[in-house]
Design brief:
Strand order of the largest sheet: 1-2
Order of helices and strands: HEEHHHHEHE
Oligomer: single chain
Shape: extended
Helix content: 40-55%
Number of strands: 4
Largest sheet: 2 strands, antiparallel
Amino acid sequence: MNHGALGWLSGEIASLETQGLRRRLRVRQSRQQAEIHIDGSKLINFSSNDYLGLAAEFPAQAFSEAIEQVGWGSGASPLVTGRGVFQSRLESALADFEGAEAALLFGSGYAANVGAITALAGREDTIFSDAHNHASIIDGCRLAGADVQVYRHAD
């Protein structure tokens, strides 16, 4: 038995396994939609964050043409190698739609929460945070270095 600083993990993992609560990464073999195929099983998807149903709806041909034109991924920070023409167009269209000077796209909700919170708050600030906030909000609060006051959910 490992009695080092992390020795307690073995027991925790065994406990999760016994309770049927240990999580594992699974492989999806289908589009992200209402019915999905994971590890060979057909399932109804009640767990998606794809609220608008866009993950499986964009035409593959449009993606293929965009990839042919500008490639896949940024390769580096947009400040170093520039941002993609399609990202630039979308940010401009969103800013126009909102009547704003500019818009900034993030690659995920996690990145958006961490980026926005750390941009808006710092060590001299106080953040009031719901106890049930998503991990990305909690991480953003911690990274901001602000005084975080956690309150009971929906109180």
